[in-house]
Every structure is written in structure tokens, then in C-alpha cells.
């Protein structure tokens, strides 16, 4: 820089001492500068630098006057850039003439007078002509890189050029290198992305200077002659270096964010930084040395992802669905199809299909090809993920977790993907848990992959293996729609760099979806056009010769060829044949006799596999042992096949010890050890036992194929039910994972997952999760019912909930209990068990979230706050005396309001799906929201269609479609699972639509409108089937279709009801008259015999559907107009919702009101619906809420909430715990006399006087956020004894004098006296 020029700012922190890191010592600062005087570049095998740097590096050395590594072995100390004249003739350089061909052969082209290995700068004349000629020659020699010198000069004039220089030079020539080495384009793109990230960083931290220097060394290394020459033979390793460099760049650029995470976690920043950088630099050194040595080793790219791991830790993930390199193709086999797939992956053109479907019969080797492709792709350092379905693990519901799992695996491979994914889940936390795979695909895959595609021109590979094993057709329906391009996010619209490889058998639904998709490339392994028989036979022969290499003294190539021909292209048969030939189950039968048996078979295809399965099993179980051994085999394999997920040998043996018959109590190892060629886990007691190939499962369960070896899976269902219950009785216990404190949420326990694995063995974990399913599958028997009854009567019930909570499986408990309820149907002698089931379900629905959040509060909050009349409270509260005691105002019974769902605007219509799992609501702002009826979780984003409000919403009987009517005179049909709009809006009415209905068979839609007409539509085509139905003289507010689909009923503003022929549109009979006001709602009973109507005249009428006559007197009781009526599925009850803010339940026969009105809504109720089982009512109101009511709860449920009129916002306690707590609310503060009891040991968690305890979502916490206890919303008004103020007598009052909390929480349980 000239003296007269202004001083340039130094943006890089390490040019001056940083004061932002007080923990960094002065020695650290000196070392950051001094380390530049020591060699950090890994030495070559001779101890000296390798090869000449090529033209660019030479220019760099000379223009910047940098000492060569040979003369100095180092980069210079950090210092301001030397002044460089703007005149070219002032630059003193020496450069070699470069031949354009040198980029290909990469041999130095030095003049005879030069030492080609010398890197020492020699002084030369500064004649400008001489200098310019040499520069022009050099730039011409690399194919027109005319801006390189200017780039280098500009770089040399910037601060810290010794770090950034090599990166900027690399960026200027990367395109030219890619043209010479096209197979390295991906790695070069990654290098370019990493360098740009660092160069664009304006203010890096001094703490990462050592790592930045190492990255700079890498860019110098990759531009050396010797490195460039080795790229063709070391592509995978070159890619690894690129990926590790990108990880380092990510660490450098995002260091401040990483620091913040360390601070939050209480880590020592200096130590963590030093450890991370040493790890990064060590990996880079090893990779570069391996590249020099041409010796690729298994060095794993180091990834620092602590911040993102915090974001992903709760994301749903499927274990055991990933890559298994032991199942890859034998080297040298399947090369043709592998090459074809690899070419497809690397061709990132816009017109290349994004999806490739590899299909083929059982045993063709599809999985091996898929795994080999994934291994090749991942080995070269590219971001990819492998996901495998497995029919033996259907209980995993892998289809619901496919893209959350794939996204997490992709994040491990790419730092850009990782950060994009972290941003996605921060913006929408629900993405981590949603079962909506369309949302998963859009938010977790498309978005992040799109970010990657913009930064790096590298393919991203997703492998989905064995799609046919996902379960029934519904399990893969949406995956197929997505792959086939039938959603908005079709593969043809995917980023050009995304590749999806799918493998499966040929099944009807898969064929139908993918065969006709033009953008899906199909390779059939059953087609000679794709896989030639000669190629398949050659590959199988190579496989067989390798497997039988140890028997070369017995077999020759001709034998191997014979077996290959017999295989009929089935790799699985070849594997079994080799295992059979090598087997030693019978001493008298050697390899050659077995070979001849196999060679003589004439079977083909599937029969070929059946034949070899029979041969293997006969040898394991000879004829003379069948009577004793085959029953054991059937029982064992029945157990293996009937399990909802595979278990290891030890767990299987433990389960068998609890089977009903003593004869079944044997060690599984005695038999399974001989099945090594057929099942996994025979040599390892911790590996799950499952069929090695799906064809063996099919063989055993088909009696026509397996004959005497047939396995009847149903025969062990009862045994599995008994075993599961008894294992829980034996293994469950209080505080099973030894949780130390009740103050912490489960997420704050770093080793909780480890504790779960150590404390809950496989058989206990399995039993806790699946006992209900096994009981439901078993035939009803009283002895099993007694076992179930004992489960609910003992503390085992609470311990079960505890175990599920720490395993993060509590959400499945309601399903297990529903299985028990179904199993008990029709058995009046077990009514008490049914009551226990329902009580436990209600307990979980109320307290499940807080038990999952902090499991000790199952005992400290859920149990003591349960209603006193609940079975759980009555059975177990006395066993846990040292918990909060409610001494006044304790709710007696479960409130009828089971759940309140809050929405942002008025709700005009609600409906519940036939299976009771989902609730849909239509609202004032024109949106539809679908909710999980069990958890209250919103399922996906709202369905947005129209700014006018939704007047009516219905769900089809099969639960697949939602139909909505709007004030904007249109009707819309939606996919209930994906939320996708199906087809164009249905248009035809001339006025707003007030009501829609869908026929039981789902083929027709009926609508009623302000225009006084009714229209009938084809649900598939959207066309009207008949002319509009005319007859009403006022708007049609409500329509309904009879259960048999033959009649339509309508209610109108004209005070009448009309019945119509659903086929012809002809009106049937005279109008039904009796109401004195507009009719807002009509409904038909499930048996089709009655019509019920609700009117603004505040009455409900019942009508005979055949004669039109009124049945009895009107139902009276509401004080406002009735907006909605519904009938329970059994036809016994009528439910009505009114403008008077109440819901009433009526006896459908007598018209008598059943109990008091259901109160809770604060505005008119626009819609009511009942679940198919009649147990729940759903209501929607103008007060912006949807309420779920438990209809089986007694009408006198609970004590009406009094005291505060809104939930408590804070409470305060004195630090000594003896001056009491005052409750405060947004409405007003209540006070009462001071009783004698107070919180025990309050000083252990409170500091200062007085201390406010804030309440968030029901949690009472201290100023440090530690959890004290949780108050359910039906205890709205709360008073804590110990106050000096006065509160109403009916408020809830707590005695906390014996409350065991914090580190002593486990003392809440009554001490058991040892027998």
C-alpha cells in the first residue's frame, strides 16, 4: 500500500487482539500468530513437499514473493500485504512456459535450463516485455484463463492473502480443471462452495485461525501437479477431502453460533474449540497423506453438529432401516446394471428422470444392488440416504417416518443440508413429529435439498428399498402418489440434482402407480432386455465360485457353472445352495452328494426356492425326529413370525418361559442355532432373529408350499398375550431408569436413552408396547381376562405408563387400551375391566403430555390431581402419600370436556372421521383444519381455499375425502391424508352454499344453497347428475343422505323439510311441517327410519322417514335457536348444539333430556358431531374453540370451575416454605386465612423472599425454570394453604407439607416392607 493511500480496514479478527473471548489466554493469542511459523502441511513420504505447484502456484509464489515450501517449509507470519505496484513492469517473476496438454498428462514442462523440482524463486530481469510475454504464454497455455494474473494480483493486495489466496486462485481455475477431469466435477463443486463460504465471511474469529490455515493448505495441495494427476484413480478419496473441507468451512463460518450452543450447554469454549479443530485438521492430514500414498483407508469425515443435534434430537427416526454394507453385491457382479444406475445418478440434466424403479421377482438381488449403489455413492463423499422397509417390522410404522429418517441421515452427510434442515424444524417444530409424509417430503427433503442444489452441483441420492414390504396398500399409497407425480411436488418438479432409487417386487398397486409415470425410469430384473440371462448367470457363477472357494479340491468350474444355470437368475437360491453344500448337519452327507441333489432339480422360479427350503429343513429335522422336533419348530417360528418386531435369541427364550404350556419353556438356541442359512441372529444373542429373506416367510406361511413345515402364526397369539403380561409383571418397577430429579424435563437428561437400554431389556420393551395388540389377536378366554384385570388393579399399570414415557412411546398406550376394549366387547362379566380401560385412557389423554415432558410427574402431578372418583386415584393415590394433597375443591369425576382445541376464528362446522381418529373443522376465514382426536395435535397446515367462510364440512365414510361448502358458491373435495385439493371446485349454485353431504358409498355429493336449490354431484367427475332440485321457497340450510343412499332430506328457511329421490331428484311426498322458524339442521338416523330436525324456534322434532309424520312432542329445553343436531351411531341419542351456548343430549326414543346441558362454550354452538362409537361429542363454536366431550362420563362430572374466571398466571411462595402461597390471576386476586400447612423444604429450590413461581401451560416453576408440579385446567382456581389472604371456600386448596420433590422425589411412594 502506498504511503499516500488511505489505510485499508482489517476485517479479520486475528489481525488484532480480540477481547470477545476472555477465556482465551495471551498465550493462545501468541500461538495463533506463532503457529504460522511452523509447518502445518503434512509432509510427503520423503519428508519434503511433493511435486511442483503447477503454473498457478508458481505465479502465486512469485507474485507474492512467498518463500517456497522447500526453502521455508511454512507460510509467513501474518502481516499486512506487501505493497504491489499497479504497473506490471514492476513485478519481478520467473515462470515456466505451460503446454495446454499438461493439464491432461500433468507432467511438468520445464525448459532444459530449469530445475523442474526447484521451487526457489530466482531473481530475473524486470524487463516488462519479458515479464508480459511469459505471463501471456502461461495464461494461453491453460486455455484462455486471461484473468488469472489479475486475480492473483488483486488477491495479493488484500489482507491475509496467504490464507485466502489459494482459495481465490482455485476458484478462478476450478472450471478449467473440471473440463479436464469431468468425473471430479462434484468434488470440485464442493471445494468451490467451501472456498466461497470462507471468502464471503467478513468477520471470522481469531479462535479458528489454525483451522483456516489448514484449509488454505488443502487448496494449495489440490492444485499441485501430483494431486491433479491422481484424481482419476482416487476419485472417492478426493471427494472425501472435499467434503471434509466443506465441514471445516462450515465450522469456521458458523463458529459464533457454535459458541453460543456451547455456552448454553455449559461447555468450556476454549477446550471445545481446540478439540474440534484438532479433530478436523487430523482428518484432513490423514486424507491428504492417503491421497499421496494412493492408499485409501477407512477415514471417516469429521462432522461437528452439536447445535443441529439439539434441533434434531426429538425428530422421529427409524432404527435399523439404514445401510448394511455386509449385504452388498460381490465385487465384479452386477456391473452392467450398477453402471447404468451410476450413470443415471451422475447425469444431472433437466430432462433426466428423477426416479428410477428397480423391480424384480423374489431372490433376484434387488436389495444387494440398492445397497451397493448406496455404498458407492456414500464412499465417494456425496450426500445420500438409504431407507429399507421390512415386513417383519410393520409395527415400526416406517411409512410414517420415512422422510424424517431420510432427512436426518442426509444431514449427517452434508453441512449445508444440515443447516437447512435445522432451519426448517426451527420454523416448524411439528415437522419433527408429523405423520403426514407429504409435509415431511416438502419441509424436510425438498426445501433443504433445494438449498444444497443451489450451493453445490452434486447429486443427492435417496434409496428406498423393498417398498413392497411397507405393509398393506394404504401404507405406501402416498409414497406412490408422490413418486408417480400425482401431487403438486411431483418428481418432474424436483431439483435436477435429486435422485430417488426405489426397489420392489411387482405388485398391482406399485405397477399401476409407476409403470405409467413418464418421468419414472424402470429397470425390470425379470426382463431379458434389462438383465441378460448370460450376464446374470455369469455373475451368479462368480458368486458361487467365491462362496465355495474353500472346496476347490472338490469342485471345478464346471460344477459352479451347473449351479449357476440351475439358479434361474435367483441370487437367493445361489446363496442357499452354497450354504447347503457347505453345511455339516449330517456327517454322512458331504458336499458332492448335496451338489448332485441340487443339480438334479427341475424346479424353476419360486418353486426353485421352495425346493431348497424343503431340502434344508429336512436335513435339519430328519424324518425320524419329526414327531418331536417339528412341533417345536412350528412353535418357535410361529413366535418369530407373529412378533410385531424381531427380538434377539435371549428375549425370545425369556418370552417362551412365560408361555402357558411348560413344554414350550425351552432354550431357543437349541433349535435356532441350526437355522443359520435361513434366519438372522443365530450366532449372536443380541441380534434379532428374523427370516433372512422374505421368500422364507412366504414359504412357511403357505401350507400348499411348505406342507409339514407349515407355520400357523395364529397358534401362538394367546401365548404371546400371556407372556407379554407376565413379563411386565416381572420386569416393571418404580423409577425404572433411576431419574434423580423431578425438576428436570426428560429432554435435559443427557443419558436417558442409555438408561432406557440398560434398564428396559428388549422383551420388556416389546411387551410394554405390544401387549394390547397380542391380547386383541387372541381368542377370548377367562384366564387371560383375569391376567388383564390384575394388570389394571396393580401398580404395574403406573409403572407401565412410566416405562412408555421414558421410551417416548406413551402415545401408543391409548391404542393398546382400545385393543383391550375391543377384545372385551360382548363379555358382560368383564365390565369392570372395560371401566378400568376407559379410566386409564382418560388419564392418559389428560396427563400424557406432562408425563412425557417429565416422567416423575406421573406420580407428583398426574396421580394427585386425578379426580377422586377415578379408578386410578382410588387404587393408587394412597400408595404415594408424599405428593401434593388437594384438601379442598378436589374434582370428583372426570369433566365432560375432554379437550379444548383453540382456533383463530369462529368455527362454523365440525365433523369427526368414521374411525374417530380425526376431527375436521371449517371456519370463518375459509380454512379447514384437521386435528388428531386423541392428542389434539393439528395435522398439517390448514387447507386454504377461499376468503369466504366454510359453511359445511363432511368426511366420507371411508375417511379418505373431505368435502367442504363455502359462501362463495363453490364446493371443494380434499384428500383427507395429504390435504391436497382433488380436482377443480364444483360450481353451479348461484348463491352461497350452506350444507354439503356425501353418500355412504362416496360416489355422490349433495349440496344446499341460498339459491333455494339442492344439487347432486358425481364425486369423481364433479359434474351434476340431475337438474337442480327445486321446491323450497327459501334458502336450504341443511341436507342429509339416507344410509342406503336412496333419499335426500333437506331443511330450509321456509320452515319445512322435504324428502327427495336421490336418483331422479323427484320430491317424495308433501313437505314436513311443524316448525315455526327456519330449519338449520336435519339428520337421518343410522337405520334410515327417522329424521331429526333443529330450528331457530328452539325446538327439535322427530319425524317418521317413511310417512313424514311427527313422532311425539317437540324436544324443548334450549333457550336459543338450534344450529346443529346429530344422532349417535346406535340411534339411541340425539345431540343438539344451540345459540344458547349449550349442548344437550336427548334420549332418541322418549325425547327426554339426559342430564344437564353441557356448558363451556362462551358463544353460540354452530356445529356438533358424534364419534362412531358414540363415546365422544365434538362441538364447534363462534368462540373460536372446538371442544371434545366424553359422553360416557356421568352428567354430574366434576365441580364447576369457580373462583378465578381465567387460568392462573402466577403464584408466589415465601422462601422458608411456611408463609404460604398466594394465587394470582388476570381477573383478580383472592385471599384467605392462614392454615398451618406449607410447602416442605421450599428453601431447597427457592432463593430470595418472596419468590414468584410462574405458571406456564399449567406448570408451576421456580425462577430458574425448575418444575415443581402441574395443575390441570379443570383446577382453574387454586389456593395454597399458608396464605394470609382470603379465597372462596370452593377453590382448590393444596397441602404441600409432605411433598417430596427435586432430588428426593422418589420418596413420594410409600415405603414397602420387605417380606
Automatic annotation (TrEMBL):
Domain Nephrocystin 3-like N-terminal, residue spans: 337-504
Keyword Lyase listed: no
WD repeats, residue ranges: 907-941, 943-984, 986-1027, 1029-1070, 1072-1113, 1115-1156, 1158-1199
Domain of life: Eukaryota
Biased composition (Basic and acidic residues): 13-33
The entry's keywords: Repeat, WD repeat
Biased composition (Polar residues): 37-51, 91-104
Alphabetized Gene3D superfamilies for the sequence: P-loop containing nucleotide triphosphate hydrolases, YVTN repeat-like/Quinoprotein amine dehydrogenase
Pfam family for this entry, one: NPHP3_N
GO CC terms of this entry: transferase complex
Region (Disordered): 1-53, 65-127
Designated name of the protein: Nephrocystin 3-like N-terminal domain-containing protein
Organism: Rhizopogon vinicolor AM-OR11-026
Lineage of the organism: Eukaryota, Fungi, Dikarya, Basidiomycota, Agaricomycotina
Amino acid at each position: 500500500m502506498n504511503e499516500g493511500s488511505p489505510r485499508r480496514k482489517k476485517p479479520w479478527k486475528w489481525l488484532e487482539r480480540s477481547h470477545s473471548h476472555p477465556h482465551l489466554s495471551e498465550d493462545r493469542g501468541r500461538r495463533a500468530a506463532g503457529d504460522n511459523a511452523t509447518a502445518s502441511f503434512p509432509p510427503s513420504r520423503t519428508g519434503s513437499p511433493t511435486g511442483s505447484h503447477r503454473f498457478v502456484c508458481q505465479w502465486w509464489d512469485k507474485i507474492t514473493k512467498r518463500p517456497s515450501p522447500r526453502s521455508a517449509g511454512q507460510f509467513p507470519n501474518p502481516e499486512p500485504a506487501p505493497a504491489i505496484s499497479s504497473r506490471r513492469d514492476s513485478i519481478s517473476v520467473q515462470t515456466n512456459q505451460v503446454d495446454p496438454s499438461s493439464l491432461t498428462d500433468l507432467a511438468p514442462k520445464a525448459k532444459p535450463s530449469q530445475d523442474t523440482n526447484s521451487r526457489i524463486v530466482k531473481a530475473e530481469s524486470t524487463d516488462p516485455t519479458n515479464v508480459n510475454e511469459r505471463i501471456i504464454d502461461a495464461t494461453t497455455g491453460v486455455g484462455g484463463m486471461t484473468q488469472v494474473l489479475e486475480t492473483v494480483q488483486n488477491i495479493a493486495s488484500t489482507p491475509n492473502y496467504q490464507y485466502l489466496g489459494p482459495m481465490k486462485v482455485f476458484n478462478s481455475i476450478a472450471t478449467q480443471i473440471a473440463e479436464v477431469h469431468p468425473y471430479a466435477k462434484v468434488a470440485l463443486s464442493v471445494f468451490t462452495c467451501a472456498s466461497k463460504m470462507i471468502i464471503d465471511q467478513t468477520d471470522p474469529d481469531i479462535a479458528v485461525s489454525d483451522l483456516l490455515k489448514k484449509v488454505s493448505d488443502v487448496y494449495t495441495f489440490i492444485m499441485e501437479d501430483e494431486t491433479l494427476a491422481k484424481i482419476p484413480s482416487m476419485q472417492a478419496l478426493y471427494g472425501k477431502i472435499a467434503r471434509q473441507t466443506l465441514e471445516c468451512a462450515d465450522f469456521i463460518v458458523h463458529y459464533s453460533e457454535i459458541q453460543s450452543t456451547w455456552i448454553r450447554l455449559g461447555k468450556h469454549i476454549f477446550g471445545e474449540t481446540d478439540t474440534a479443530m484438532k479433530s478436523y485438521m487430523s482428518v484432513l492430514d490423514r486424507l491428504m497423506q492417503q491421497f499421496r500414498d494412493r492408499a485409501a483407508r477407512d477415514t471417516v469425515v469429521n462432522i461437528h453438529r452439536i447445535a443441529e443435534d439439539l434441533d434434531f434430537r426429538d425428530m422421529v427416526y427409524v432404527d435399523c432401516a439404514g445401510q448394511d454394507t455386509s449385504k452388498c453385491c460381490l465385487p465384479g457382479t452386477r456391473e452392467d446394471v450398477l453402471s447404468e444406475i451410476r450413470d443415471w445418478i451422475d447425469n444431472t440434466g433437466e430432462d433426466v428422470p428423477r426416479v428410477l424403479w428397480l423391480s424384480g421377482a423374489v431372490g433376484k438381488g434387488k436389495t444387494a444392488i440398492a445397497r451397493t449403489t448406496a455404498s458407492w455413492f456414500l464412499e465417494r463423499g456425496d450426500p445420500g440416504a438409504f431407507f429399507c422397509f421390512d415386513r417383519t417390522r410393520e409395527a415400526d410404522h416406517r411409512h410414517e417416518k420415512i422422510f424424517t429418517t431420510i432427512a436426518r441421515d442426509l444431514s449427517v452427510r452434508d453441512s449445508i443440508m444440515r443447516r437447512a434442515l435445522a432451519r426448517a424444524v426451527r420454523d416448524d417444530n411439528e415437522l419433527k413429529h408429523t405423520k403426514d409424509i407429504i409435509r415431511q417430503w416438502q419441509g424436510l427433503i425438498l426445501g433443504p435439498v433445494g438449498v444444497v442444489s443451489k450451493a453445490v452441483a452434486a447429486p443427492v441420492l435417496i434409496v428406498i428399498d423393498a417398498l413392497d414390504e411397507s405393509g398393506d396398500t394404504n401404507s405406501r399409497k402416498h409414497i406412490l402418489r408422490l413418486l408417480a407425480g400425482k401431487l403438486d411436488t411431483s418428481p418432474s418438479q424436483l431439483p435436477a440434482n435429486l435422485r430417488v432409487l426405489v426397489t420392489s417386487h411387482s405388485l398391482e398397486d406399485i405397477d399401476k402407480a409407476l409403470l405409467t409415470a413418464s418421468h419414472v425410469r424402470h429397470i425390470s430384473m425379470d426382463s431379458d432386455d434389462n438383465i441378460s440371462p448370460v450376464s446374470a448367470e455369469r455373475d451368479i457363477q462368480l458368486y458361487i465360485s467365491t462362496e465355495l472357494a474353500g472346496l476347490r479340491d472338490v469342485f471345478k468350474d464346471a460344477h459352479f457353472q451347473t449351479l449357476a444355470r440351475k439358479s434361474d437368475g435367483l441370487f437367493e437360491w445361489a446363496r442357499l445352495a452354497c450354504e447347503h453344500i457347505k453345511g455339516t448337519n449330517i456327517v454322512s452327507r458331504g458336499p458332492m452328494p448335496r451338489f448332485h441333489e441340487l443339480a438334479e432339480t427341475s424346479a424353476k422360479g419360486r418353486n426353485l426356492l421352495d425346493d431348497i427350503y424343503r431340502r434344508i429343513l429336512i436335513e435339519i429335522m430328519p424324518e425320524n425326529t419329526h414327531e418331536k422336533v417339528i412341533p417345536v419348530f412350528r412353535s418357535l417360528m410361529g413366535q418369530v413370525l407373529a412378533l410385531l418386531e424381531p427380538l434377539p435369541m435371549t428375549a425370545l427364550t425369556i418370552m417362551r418361559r412365560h408361555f402357558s404350556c411348560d413344554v414350550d419353556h425351552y432354550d431357543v438356541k437349541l433349535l435356532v442355532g441350526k437355522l443359520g442359512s435361513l434366519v438372522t441372529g443365530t450366532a449372536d444373542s443380541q441380534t434379532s432373529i428374523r427370516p433372512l429373506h422374505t421368500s422364507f416367510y412366504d414359504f412357511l406361511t403357505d401350507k400348499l408350499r411348505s406342507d409339514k413345515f407349515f407355520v400357523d402364526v395364529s397358534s401362538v397369539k394367546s401365548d404371546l398375550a400371556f407372556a407379554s403380561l407376565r413379563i411386565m409383571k416381572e420386569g416393571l418397577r418404580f423409577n425404572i431408569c433411576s431419574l434423580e430429579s423431578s425438576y428436570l424435563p426428560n429432554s435435559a437428561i443427557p443419558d436417558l436413552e442409555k438408561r432406557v437400554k440398560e434398564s428396559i431389556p428388549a422383551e420388556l420393551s416389546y411387551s410394554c408396547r405390544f401387549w394390547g395388540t397380542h391380547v386383541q389377536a387372541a381368542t377370548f378366554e377367562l384366564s387371560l381376562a383375569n391376567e388383564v384385570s390384575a394388570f389394571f388393579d396393580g401398580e404395574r399399570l403406573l409403572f407401565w405408563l412410566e416405562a412408555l414415557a421414558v421410551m417416548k412411546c406413551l402415545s401408543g398406550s391409548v391404542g393398546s387400551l382400545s385393543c383391550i376394549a375391543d377384545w372385551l366387547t360382548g363379555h358382560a362379566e368383564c365390565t369392570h375391566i372395560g371401566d378400568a380401560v376407559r379410566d386409564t385412557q382418560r388419564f392418559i389423554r389428560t396427563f400424557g403430555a406432562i408425563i412425557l415432558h417429565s416422567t416423575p410427574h406421573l406420580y407428583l402431578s398426574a396421580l394427585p390431581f386425578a379426580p377422586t372418583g377415578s379408578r386410578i386415584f382410588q387404587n393408587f393415590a394412597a400408595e404415594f402419600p408424599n405428593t401434593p394433597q388437594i384438601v379442598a375443591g378436589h374434582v370428583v369425576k372426570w369433566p365432560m370436556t375432554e379437550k379444548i382445541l383453540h382456533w383463530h376464528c369462529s368455527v362454523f362446522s365440525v365433523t369427526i372421521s368414521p374411525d374417530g381418529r380425526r376431527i375436521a373443522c371449517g371456519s370463518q376465514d375459509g380454512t379447514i383444519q384437521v386435528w388428531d382426536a386423541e392428542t389434539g395435535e393439528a395435522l398439517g397446515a390448514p387447507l386454504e381455499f377461499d376468503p369466504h367462510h366454510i359453511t359445511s364440512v363432511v368426511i366420507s365414510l371411508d375417511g379418505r375425502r373431505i368435502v367442504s361448502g363455502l359462501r362463495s358458491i363453490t364446493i371443494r373435495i380434499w384428500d383427507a391424508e395429504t390435504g391436497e385439493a382433488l380436482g377443480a371446485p364444483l360450481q353451479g349454485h348461484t348463491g352461497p352454499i350452506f350444507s354439503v353431504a356425501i353418500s355412504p358409498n362416496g360416489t355422490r355429493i349433495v349440496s344446499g344453497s341460498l339459491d333455494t336449490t339442492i344439487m347432486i354431484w358425481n364425486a369423481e367427475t364433479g359434474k351434476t347428475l340431475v337438474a337442480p332440485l327445486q321446491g323450497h321457497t327459501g334458502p336450504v340450510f341443511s341436507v342429509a343422505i339416507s344410509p342406503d343412499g336412496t333419499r335426500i332430506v333437506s331443511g330450509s328457511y321456509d320452515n319445512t323439510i322435504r324428502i327427495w329421490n336421490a336418483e331422479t331428484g323427484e320430491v317424495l311426498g308433501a313437505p314436513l311441517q311443524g316448525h315455526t322458524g327456519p330449519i338449520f339442521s336435519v339428520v337421518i338416523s343410522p337405520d334410515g327410519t327417522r329424521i331429526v330436525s333443529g330450528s331457530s324456534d328452539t325446538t327439535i322434532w322427530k319425524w317418521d322417514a317413511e310417512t313424514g309424520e311427527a313422532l311425539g312432542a317437540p324436544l324443548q329445553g334450549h333457550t336459543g335457536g338450534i344450529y346443529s343436531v346429530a344422532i349417535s351411531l346406535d340411534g339411541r341419542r340425539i345431540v343438539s348444539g344451540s345459540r344458547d351456548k349449550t349442548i344437550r343430549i336427548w334420549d332418541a326414543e322418549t325425547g327426554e333430556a339426559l342430564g344437564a346441558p353441557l356448558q363451556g362454550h362462551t358463544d353460540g354452538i354452530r356445529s356438533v358431531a358424534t364419534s362412531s362409537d358414540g363415546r365422544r361429542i365434538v362441538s364447534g363454536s363462534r368462540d373460536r374453540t372446538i371442544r371434545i366431550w366424553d359422553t360416557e362420563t356421568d352428567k354430574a362430572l366434576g365441580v364447576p370451575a369457580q373462583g378465578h374466571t381465567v387460568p392462573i398466571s402466577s403464584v408466589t411462595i415465601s422462601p422458608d416454605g411456611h408463609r404460604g402461597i398466594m394465587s394470582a390471576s388476570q381477573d383478580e386476586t383472592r385471599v384467605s386465612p392462614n392454615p398451618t400447612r406449607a410447602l416442605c423444604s421450599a428453601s431447597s429450590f427457592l432463593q430470595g423472599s418472596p419468590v414468584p413461581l410462574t405458571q406456564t401451560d399449567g406448570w408451576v416453576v421456580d425462577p430458574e425454570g425448575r418444575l415443581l408440579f402441574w395443575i390441570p385446567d379443570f383446577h382453574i382456581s387454586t389456593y395454597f394453604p399458608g396464605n394470609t389472604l382470603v379465597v372462596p371456600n370452593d377453590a382448590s386448596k393444596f397441602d404441600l407439607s409432605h411433598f417430596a420433590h427435586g432430588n428426593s422425589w422418589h420418596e413420594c411412594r410409600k415405603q414397602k416392607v420387605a417380606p
